[in-house]
Structures are given as C-alpha cells and as structure tokens.
Amino acid sequence: MKIGCPKEIKPQEFRVGMTPNAVHEAVAHGHEVFIETGAGAGSGFEDDAYVAAGARILDTAEEIFATAELIVKVKEPQAVERKMLREGQVLFTYLHLAPDPEQTRDLLASGCTAIAYETVTDDRGGLPLLAPMSEVAGKLAPQVGSWTLQKANGGRGVLMGGVPGVLPAKVVVIGGGVVGTHAALVASGMGADVTVLDRSLPRMRYLDDAFGGRFKTAYSSPGTTADLIATADMAIGAVLIPGAAAPKLVTRDQLSTMKAGAVLVDVAIDQGGCFETSKPTTHHDPIYEVDGIMHYCVANMPGAVPRTSTIALGNATMPFLLALADKGWKQACADDPNLLNGLNVHAGKLTNYAVGKALGIDVVSPQVAIKG
Ligand SMILES: NC(=O)C1=CN([C@@H]2O[C@H](COP(=O)(O)OP(=O)(O)OC[C@H]3O[C@@H](n4cnc5c(N)ncnc54)[C@H](O)[C@@H]3O)[C@@H](O)[C@H]2O)C=CC1
Ligand SMILES: CC(=O)C(=O)O
Ligand SMILES: [Mg+2]
C-alpha cells in the first residue's frame, strides 16, 4: 500500500505521524512510504533518516495527498488539508469531531474513510492511541499550570510546593483517568496538596491502592466540585466521555467563588473543554484571563515536547498502522473491533454515535459501514 505522511501544519505542532522506525517496519511489510520533506525535523528526525529507513521524500503536502492511499498524521486535518482528501482515501489521525462541526462537514463531503486515534479502544476499556498523549499532557499540566500561577503571568503568585512554614498550592484534578493520574503524580511530586475527582469508584479505589497517600480522591458531584474549586490555586480539567463533548463542570458564575489569580488548565479542551469559560488556545498564546481567573487551554499540549510525543505516539499506532496497510481498512476493522471503534467517517456517513449525538447528525453503525 502507498502510505503518506505530511508535515503537520497546525500552529506550533512539531510532532509527525511516522518515525523512521515506523517507516522501516512498513517497508519491511512491503509497503511504499512517502514523507513530506521536513515533516520529522521538529521531532529531531531529518529526511536522511527516513530515506535510510526506505521512504521516498516528496516536496509538498499536495504530492503526499495525491499519491497515498493511507494518510498518517497527528492532528486533525486543517481546512487546506481537508480539501486534498478524496473518496476512498483512508485518514488515520486524531480527529476530535464532537466539538468541530466544520471539520466533520468537510470530512463527510470528501468521501474519505477517517479513523480517529482517540476512539480506538483496547480490551480493557482503555484508549490505547489516546493514552500516550494523555500521559504527556497529564505530566505537562502541572508544569504549565505552575508557570501560569506565577505573578508575572497573571497568576496568584503561589509556589506549588510552598516552603518550610508556608503551605503548598492546592490542586484539584477533575477526572482521574490517564491525564488526571499523571497530572496528580507530577503535582504531588512538586509538593502540592492534590485532590483527584472522578465519578468511577473502581477507578478511585485503584488510585488509592496504587498511589495512596500521594494525593486524595473525592467523588465528583457538583457540590464537591464547587467546594474544592473555591479553595483551589489550580484546577486541571481531565474528564472524558469517549467521543463525546466534554461535560461542563465549572460554570462562569463559579469563577467568582475562586481565589483571584487561580489557574484553570483545561486539558479536555480538545473535546470542547470542561470549564464553561474555556476556549482553545495555542502554544504561541496559551493563556487568557476571565473574571480574574487564568485559563490555559492548549488543544495540542504534547506538541510542546514533540520528540517524546512522536516516539510515544508511534509506539502505540504501529500495530494498527501495519494492520490497516497489510489488510486494507475494511478487513483490518472487520478483524479487530477495537480498531473498528476508531471509524468515525466513511463515504459521506458519520459512524461514531457519540459524535453524532454531539453534532445532531445521523449515524450509520460502523459494522454496517464496513460492509458497504
Ligand atoms: N489538550 C491536549 O493536548 C490533550 C488532551 N487530552 C484530552 O484529555 C481528556 C482526558 O483524557 P484521558 O485521561 O486519556 O481519558 P480517560 O478516559 O483515561 O479518563 C477520563 C476520566 O474522566 C472521568 N470522568 C468522566 N466524567 C467525569 C465527571 N463528570 N467528573 C469527574 N470525572 C469524570 C472518567 O471516569 C475517567 O476516569 C480527553 O478529552 C483527551 O482527549 C489528551 C491528550 C492531550
Ligand atoms: C490527543 C491530542 O489531541 C493531542 O495529542 O494533540
Ligand atoms: Mg488535541
């Protein structure tokens, strides 16, 4: 199969969809791989490394999209990329369609088959292609939040770990999944006083067993969230209902109950955000203030550490990428219900129920779509 990997064009996005190692494996499986020149440079992979692994370098994204049957990316296709997608072409990348009606409309119009990393599942109910980036974003969240807490950046001027005789910062993490756990571990490692809120009792039991003492857990009800938010120096939004728009768990009215200069880091912004006042920002201009509360809402946080993120993402996508290329998308999805859960769009139809519900669009079941 002809596999193409264009350079990412989202602002300050330096990750790349395929590493030279991934190219090497795909070529060993008999596939042809086309990489846009410079695509890996931001992650420390120069064209030479791809050529040594067996890829051909093409000069433009147009050539990549025109040549490849399977396009492998990191971020959702931007408007100019969506225009280059065609019927029958397979797109394998993050999509986050629930909060993005324009992208959804364009993908449906293109006739392509789009498989979203973030809705591919595993046998234990996890999201194996979201997890590596959630690990990265979770670890980054207290780091960027503590920077935002600094006075010169608009924050309260509180040090995460305090000092002898001065209390540490209070951090509330809403959602104790992959992002939330990694955020809680780093925040507690920095010395903060951390509480994780979740609605899953089994998940909180696991967190307590595995990390007991390093942070506290509390059931995520509106009342508990309101109480904790009012005394927090930092809240990290890390909830997920797979495929769906994030629930709004802190309203604008609640900002007035918070301490001036407190910080909201909304990692769930790629699913629309879990704070009512969140709107997506970029690494170039990551923070803004509403009612005296600082917000950090970068939708591609792992792009800040592209070397780590590209390798971590490539490790996770590799088996799925090889299955898609070796068998073709229909057989690969028919053989693997977890990969089939990644199917969001096929031949002008939406195939993910959570996305359809969020956007009010009719859905064809993925099982039916692969027979079409
Ligand atoms: N901004 C960025 O760059 C990145 C964003 N993300 C996003 O971060 C979010 C979290 O991802 P993961 O941790 O991998 O998901 P996950 O599925 O591992 O964890 C989500 C957790 O939220 C909990 N939850 C659901 N509703 C809740 C509620 N009302 N209150 C409290 N907890 C609730 C679930 O029980 C689960 O434990 C997703 O939206 C994901 O797309 C992930 C990576 C990078
Ligand atoms: C998960 C995601 O959206 C990202 O890594 O950018
Ligand atoms: Mg994102």
Written account of the structure:
The protein has 372 residues and is an alpha/beta fold. It folds into two domains: 183 residues, NAD(P)-binding Rossmann-like Domain (Rossmann fold); 174 residues, Rossmann fold (3-Layer(aba) Sandwich), CATH 3.40.50. Helices cover 37% and strands 16% of the residues. The strands form two sheets. An eight-stranded mixed sheet has the order 3-2-1-4-5-6-14-15, with helices on both faces. The longest helix has 22 residues. The structure holds 1,4-dihydronicotinamide adenine dinucleotide, pyruvic acid and magnesium ion (MG). Magnesium ion (MG) binds next to loops.
Descriptive keywords:
binds pyruvic acid, binds magnesium ion, 372 residues, Rossmann fold, 2 domains, alpha/beta, 15 helices, binds 1,4-dihydronicotinamide adenine dinucleotide
Topology:
Blueprint: E1 2-5, H1 20-28, E2 32-36, H2 47-52, E3 56-58, H3 61-67, E4 70-72, H4 79-82, E5 90-93, H5 101-110, E6 113-116, H6 131-149, E7 170-174, H7 178-189, E8 193-198, H8 201-211, E9 216-219, H9 222-231, E10 234-237, H10 252-255, E11 263-266, E12 287-290, E13 293-296, H11 306-327, H12 329-335, H13 337-340, E14 343-346, E15 349-350, H14 353-359, H15 366-369
Parallel strand pairs: 1-2, 1-4, 2-3, 4-5, 5-6, 7-8, 7-10, 8-9, 10-11, 11-13
Antiparallel strand pairs: 6-14, 12-13, 14-15
Helix pairs in contact: 6-7, 11-12
Bound molecules: 1,4-dihydronicotinamide adenine dinucleotide, pyruvic acid (PYR) and magnesium ion (MG).
Residues 118, 127, 130, 133-134, 137, 174-180, 197-200, 203, 220, 238-241, 246-247, 249, 267-271, 299-302 line the site of 1,4-dihydronicotinamide adenine dinucleotide.
Active site: 96, 270
Protein name: Alanine dehydrogenase
InterPro entries: Ala_DH, Ala_DH/PNT_CS2, AlaDH/PNT_N, AlaDH/PNT_NAD(H)-bd, NAD(P)-bd_dom_sf
